[in-house]
Design goal:
Layout lengths: L1 H37 L4 H23 L14 H25 L2 H8 L2 H12 L6 H19 L10 H19 L2 H7 L1 H20 L10 H26 L4 H7 L2 H13 L6 H19 L3
Helix pairs in contact: 1-10, 1-12, 2-3, 2-9, 2-10, 3-4, 3-7, 3-9, 4-7, 4-12, 5-7, 6-13, 8-9, 11-13
């Protein structure tokens, strides 16, 4: 009986932590949009600074826990190409695309678009296995395509309801987020989550630094901007990442995948409440269709 109670307690804790991590990511997107609206920080610079500092904190945390092995990943020459691919695409391009999408529309819609990443994984699987999609997979693709269409056009074939660049950068972030799903698994199992992700963020941050002009620090930052920047780096990135991944160790990974869909929900309603950004009926229908498709894909055993 005590074991059952313990398992129930772990499940409850895992559920809470995964939902907390997803909520922090969603609120991070909203705070980032607020920073963009203030206009004191360039979006590209902010993205680069957040990524690099978050990576340094994660590697530092890994060094405290396992100081003798934190750099082992750099000694494995066979793993370095994968690590650099993770840094360049799964973090560098993905994060830039995500935050530019937020900049051109809003946190809720950008988060919903990025949640289509598992669909791109599905497409990759279909191509690699040289087969047509099953009926269930067709349903998933149809829901996500319909949801994306509703967000883009609000149901009107003749016009776009969001900026084209928001869609372009959102899809780029989703495609590269799919790489984050597929690429790091072997390295995480071998070297650890904080090590793989932290070093990946540092590599990505260094690679995009010349484009984002990281060396051009703002001449002055208001207390509001400094506090918002702290939030998107520490609670919105490092803490969110840590609690979500720890939560996934306590519950079924399928449930964790579904709970991750809480991110665009939080981002949408936080934008509505705190930033007073309006969402149309088409936006809500589109977000719901995308979340339904990804949920169905997540719970499908195949």
């Amino acid at each position: 009986m005590s074991k059952t109670k313990g398992e129930t307690k772990n499940t409850a804790l895992g559920t809470f932590l995964t939902l907390l991590g997803a909520a922090l990511w969603g609120s991070c997107a909203t705070v980032s949009k607020h920073l963009m609206d203030i206009g004191e920080l360039d979006t590209m610079w902010m993205t680069n600074f957040r990524m690099l500092l978050s990576g340094i904190i994660l590697v530092g945390f890994a060094a405290i826990r396992r100081p003798k092995t934190v750099c082992d990943i750099w000694k494995d020459k066979k793993s370095l190409p994968r690590l650099f691919a993770i840094g360049a695409f799964a973090f560098g391009i993905c994060q830039v695309g995500y935050f530019l999408s937020i900049n051109y529309c809003n946190a809720g819609l950008a988060s919903a678009i990025q949640q289509t990443a598992p669909v791109f994984v599905l497409i990759f699987v279909l191509i690699s296995e040289h087969r047509l999609p099953r009926l269930s997979e067709v349903l998933v693709l149809a829901l996500v395509i319909f949801g994306s269409f509703m967000i883009a056009t609000n149901g009107d074939f003749t016009s776009l309801s969001v900026a084209p660049l928001a869609l372009v950068w959102g899809l780029i972030s989703a495609i590269t987020a799919a790489l984050y799903i597929m690429l790091p698994g072997k390295l995480i199992n071998k070297y650890g989550t904080c090590e793989t992700t932290g070093w990946g963020m540092i590599i990505g941050g260094i690679l995009i630094a010349p484009i984002c002009k990281l060396w051009m620090f703002p001449a002055s930052i208001s207390p509001e901007t400094a506090l918002s920047l702290f939030y998107i780096i520490v609670p919105g990135s490092v803490v969110a990442f840590a609690v979500f991944l720890y939560g996934t160790t306590l519950i079924d990974p399928v449930k964790a995948g579904i709970y991750n869909l809480f991110e665009p929900v939080v981002a949408t309603f936080a934008s509505l409440i705190f930033l007073h950004q309006a969402f149309s009926v088409g936006d809500y229908v589109g977000i719901a269709a995308i979340l339904a498709g990804i949920t169905f894909l997540t719970i499908s055993k195949k």
